[in-house]
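B., you asked whether I could sanity-check this one before it goes into the benchmark set. Here's the sequence:
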Amino acid sequence: MKSSLTWSSLEELKKAAEEGEPEAQRYLGVCHQTGRGLPQDHQESVKWFRRAAEQGDAAAKCFLGVCYQTGQGVPEDCSQAAGWFREAAEQGDPAAQFNLGVLYETGQGVPQNYAEAVKWYLEAAERGEAQAQFNLGVFYEAGQVVPQDYHEAVKWYRRAAEQECAPAQCNLGLCYETGRGVPQDIKRAVQWFVRAAKQGDKTAQHNLGIYYANVEAAERAAVEQAKDEAG
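And here's what the prediction gave me:
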């Protein structure tokens, strides 16, 4: 069976999907979901995700879970979403692990359970999922479920920040600004605020505004003091 690396045309992809190749079925589902090369059709995308998922494809299970979570192509049903996320999460899919963590944190489709949320965020974070790394950092900073540990919070914020997760960049900047989990370093704080602000993070933009206003005020005060001393 051909892989996505060797499908030379959409027709070849469709043929592989019809012949039962789960990777092709999943990719065809993505094409229908996004309108990439095909008319956008959420019901058709669900059909192909389901075919791949029923063959055990973890990523397809995650995609199908998202369809149920958002009501795209199927009626919105967070308990169904949780079921598909769980299957994929137990197969080690980091996106599904993160999504399942979100459902446990918010109590959608499952009973709200912060400990379960943290468990799944940790699984996803260790596999490099940036949003899970950020969420895990928040739990460590707050000391919720896990012991409060600013060093652990910084570790996870940094991992997410280096993947251009804007909220993590902002929070890492705040840690440098206040000296939580790292030596206080305003220059580094500003660097992280700038990276987050460029991505549109409103908190980072606000923090930068305060920083530059304080710098400007200090410069004015220095000028006035120099005038007074000279006079």
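One thing to flag: The CA atoms of residues 53 and 98 lie 18 Å apart. Otherwise nothing jumped out at me.
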